[in-house]
Amino acid sequence: MDFSGLIDNFGPLTVTGLAQGAIIALFALGYTLVYGVLRLINFAHSEVFLLGTYACLFAWGLFGLDQNSATPAVGPMLLYMVVGLIAAIVVSGAAALTVEFVAYRPLRRRNAPPLAFLITAIGASLFISEVAGVLTHRNQTGVPPIIQARPVFTIGDTTVTNLQLLIIVLALVMMFVLDRFINGSRLGRGVRAVAQNPDSAALMGVNKSRVIALVFLLGGLMAGIAAVMYDLKIGVTRYDAGFLLGIDAFTAAVLGGIGNLRGALLGGLLLGVLQNYAAGLFGSQWLHAASFVLLVVILLFRPTGLLGESLGRARA
């Protein structure tokens, strides 16, 4: 254990962890939304994210960009960012809705047992991942340097870059927008009503199928944004990129309180920081192992998570 390395790099590890945690938090929102309404762990959500990482690369490729391209100027960079975000959001949102319509909705109509949903979720996840692997020949794909990481400000020996700041701020903004939508809009009230009591909500005129489609769509949109931030931060993607990050996002959702939107944000940021501290203490090979250890500890001692409030009981 390298305590001196952890202490010496405490600031940089914290900032890097917050940026990584912001991506995990956006990813975790999909798990939280679906679980809050359906009490279902949508393991195919990791591949919804995966498709978003490829969608923005395809969109950037239409402009002739690849991993060897030069960093664009500010104007073109903003255009590429908007185009990449739109592409990832559309593809991830469409993929999430497709999974709901093709995989889960037929099971609900047949009143299938929970185990059938779990097996279907794993099957859908493997199917999408393997198709992506075949199409990409299981090779990693480089990301064009859309944003060149540059220092924005320094606190002590800790430098915060423009990319880290963008990821953290974007995650906070999207979390705020989603929280206001769920707690303040008419559609959001429908989501909370179905999460709290589906039968009573149906009697009050709430369309349960429409609400379920909405939460899958919202989760897909958040995954698409996370996918673009992941591409920019990591610099490569591959057919199984969603697997380990999906485990991290699931851990973050459980840590904050699965079914709790604010808990997903808190869990994601906290997990990202703890992962980086573990990497600084034990070595980078322990980065993802820390997630598994933390998940076991949470399930043993606080299975309801830090906040532990369900979506249906959320307060505006």
From TrEMBL:
Keyword set, alphabetical order: Amino-acid transport, Cell inner membrane, Cell membrane, Membrane, Transmembrane, Transmembrane helix, Transport
Highest taxon of the lineage: Bacteria
InterPro entries: ABC_transp_permease (IPR001851), BCAA_transport_permease (IPR052157)
Residue spans crossing the bilayer: 20-41, 48-65, 77-103, 115-135, 163-182, 211-230, 250-274, 286-303
Keyword Cell inner membrane: yes
Pfam family for this entry, one: BPD_transp_2
Family the entry assigns: Belongs to the binding-protein-dependent transport system permease family. LivHM subfamily.
CDD domains on file: TM_PBP1_LivH_like
Membrane topology, as annotated: Multi-pass membrane protein
Protein name in UniProt: Branched-chain amino acid ABC transporter permease
Keyword Transcription listed: no
Localization per record: Cell membrane
Organism: Paractinoplanes ovalisporus
